[in-house]
Amino acid sequence: MGSLLLAQNAFPRASSVAGYTASDDNFMKAFSARWEGLRVHTFEVYEAMPDAQLGFQPTEDVMSFAKLFSHIGVSLDYYAGILDGTLHKEEIESVEKGVVLTYLQGRFERFEAALNQLNPSDLYNPKHNLGTRDGEIYFSTYDILMLAYNHTVHHKGQATTYLRLKDIVPPQYRF
User: Fold this and answer.
1) If you compute the radius of gyration of the chain from its CA atoms, what whole number of angstroms results?
2) What's the rounded mean pLDDT across residues 41-46?
3) What tens digit of pLDDT does each residue of 100-124 get?
């Protein structure tokens, strides 16, 4: 019963997408609702680490806590650039809480601006040519949105583990 209660609390009704019918416009509404939950939880995880611990790295071969979030930011900027055709900015090199926070907020805003200007009817057109480990591949806007979401979740999950390694209870998961 406890697991069911936890699961119910993890899925807020305010941003529920239940009742939407399948359409490109409804996908965008559903994605935006899920993106908002991801954005809020990402900042909650970031804020949970004390300022003095932002440089924490579990091992030398992984990013520091602060670097995880600047990496999320630069990646969001990169994905926004793919979507809106503009160049992205450089990643910051800081472990100052306010500096990283401001940078991350700006990168989320930039990605959301690119998201909000998308044409829902053009979601599945493979028009974005990207160099990958497997060579150049054409991706759709849908693919880029999924890459941005998955990448952000991945590094937020790493940051949650970093909190636990410092005996900090992470913020409750939200969807």
Assistant:
1) 17
2) 98
3) 999 999 999 999 999 999 999 889 9
- Identify the DSSP state of 21: P
- Asked if residues 48 and 65 have their Cβ atoms less than 8 Å apart, the reply is no
Neighbouring C-alpha atoms within 13 Å toward the C-beta of 61: 0
Q: What is the pLDDT confidence band of residue 36, given thresholds at 50, 70 and 90?
A: very high
**Buried-state track 97-127, b at ≥16 Cβ within 10 A, e below 16:** beebbebbeebbebbbebbeebeeeebeeee
Beta bridge partner(s), residue 131: 136
How many residues appear in the chain? 175
User: What interhelical angle do 141-165 and 24-48 show, nearest 10?
Assistant: 20
